[in-house]
Amino acid sequence: MTSVAITHDYLTQRGGGERVVLELLELWPEAQVATLAYDAASTFPEFASHDVRESVLGPLRGHPAMRALAPLYPLAFRAFGRFDQDLVISSSSGWAHQVATSPSTRHVIYMHTPARWVYAPRRYFGSGAKLALALPLTGALRRLDRAAARRADLFLCNSRNVQERVARIYGVDAQVVFPPVDTARFTPKPRGERLLVLSRLFPYKRVELVVDAANRTGIGLDVVGAGPALADLRELAGPTVTFHGRLDDRAVTELVEGCRALVLPGTEEFGIVAVEANAAGKPVIAFAAGGALETQRDGFTAALFHEHTSEALLDAIARADALETSPEALAERAERFSRPAFRNAIGRRIEPILG
Questions:
Q1: Is the pLDDT of residue 269 over 70?
Q2: Rounded CA gap, 141 and 43, in Å?
Q3: Is 107 left (phi over 0), alpha (psi -120 to 50) or beta?
Q4: Which of 84, 94, 157, 335 is within CB 3.0–4.6 Å of 162 for a Cys-Cys bond?
């Protein structure tokens, strides 16, 4: 029987990366999970039934000092010691692939994205004190990161646009395995009246464009998510905009199934929420970049826009309203990214390296 360990950056939220780990545990339920920090109350409850171990920095989860210690994250993963399982799978958008493995271990990296704050700090932080603190550290962190990436026996990534970034940053030829989307969770239904945004609220997500469009036109808008941009978005928002914060899966499902369309105004590596919207029979209004170009078909499942302006977004909203694709047809197309499709694809990639 193959012994397996799974590493993941942190288990403190309910996002696409965490869903990937749950699917890996469906394939290898006895696997040990190692993570920077684990908060059972903030992530998916299914993790409670598995062997989850957190790093030496875990007790600081939720404390402001945790972010300040980000340059130490690679060392925190190294502090787990050498993994000697037959197979280690690192689900990483930062540092989970920095773990040490024995010479006989096969190490697979599943990359969600190279660390944004290391390779695109100005885009990630904007400007100010955080950027000034981060910039002097990026050189050393890039060297560590690239060395760890090149030690992998198999490098997988979640989309073709990340594949291109991996080639540019690491010089590695990665294989694409699209991440799992729980399409069975949704029932395709007719369109509702309100637009929906499901997003972590960081400035680079460009949610302010959707809020501005709602203000201009009086369109109802529901925003689900939390993050450092929330206060500014609340100040900008008019009376038709409702902020829901973080919601559980049931509440999110109800909003997706009842919305007019889902809006994806930023550039996503893959964009699971766009596929979820299709599974619920809803069109997507998306900026024409990143994963949206791989999961959506302009004029059929989505209305894409090419400029980050309110005018371009409003035009896309009108085009989305005019789409004639049935909810059932949208849901059928989403099945290409289902949970079984992910498990089959990743199993096929990993099996050959285990010999």
A1: yes
A2: 27
A3: beta
A4: 157
